[in-house]
Automatic annotation (TrEMBL):
This is Transcriptional regulator GfcR. GO terms for biological process: pyrimidine nucleobase biosynthetic process; regulation of gene expression; UMP biosynthetic process. GO terms for molecular function: DNA binding; orotate phosphoribosyltransferase activity. Residues 38-64 are annotated as: Disordered. Belongs to the purine/pyrimidine phosphoribosyltransferase family. GfcR subfamily. Residues 48-62 have a biased composition (Basic and acidic residues). The gene is gfcR. InterPro entries: GcfR_halob (IPR053401), GfcR-like (IPR022854), PRTase-like (IPR029057), PRTase_dom (IPR000836). Residues 64-189 form the Phosphoribosyltransferase domain. Keywords: DNA-binding, Glycosyltransferase, Transcription, Transcription regulation, Transferase. It comes from Haloferax mucosum ATCC BAA-1512. It comes from the Archaea. The lineage of its organism: Archaea, Methanobacteriati, Methanobacteriota, Stenosarchaea group, Halobacteria.
Amino acid sequence: MKNVDDLIASAAELADRGLSKGEIADELNVSRETASWLVERSGSAAKPEPDTKPEGPDDIHVDWNAIGSGGKRLTYVGRALADLLMETGETADVTIGIEKAGVPLATSVSRELETTLGAYAPAKHQWEEGDIEDLGGGFSRNFAPVDGRQCFIVDDTVTSGTTLRETIDSIRSEGGEPLACVVIVDKQGVEEIDGVPVYSLINVVRVGEQ
């Protein structure tokens, strides 16, 4: 996707397929606020004039389709994420992938680090409107449990840190111990969340911001 119009069209397509706004945010690697704006814009009768850019939320879209569409490339990136985690000196029992995009990455990381594999579905996948705190995520029973285990957390991007914080809280609620989080891209420059360090391959810095 090259511009905002492409994002709006993609959001409309995903909404037509029945995805929630939270799932659309996940698919497009944008914040929930941006996903909501894109969906609303796609259904708006007021279209921008030609050659004008519609104003929207302050966000950065990350398109890593070139990685996700190639199994070999995905494996290489997973190895790089695993290398970041190895530098921490910590040893985990379980690598938790945050659905959807974090799971294939976590699969590669767990293979490299020789851990078991877990999967967490965040509350945002159910989110449409209102307070996301009223919703809950959960661990897939088809993957490894976290109770009594030390865990690494893997996702593709950090937008606000909300999903990582939710996953950390859920691991602790289940009796596990989150050791570190790792992502491909960090949009916010997050170094830690609730005492858990966050590592990224790419850190986005907005030049000129105070």
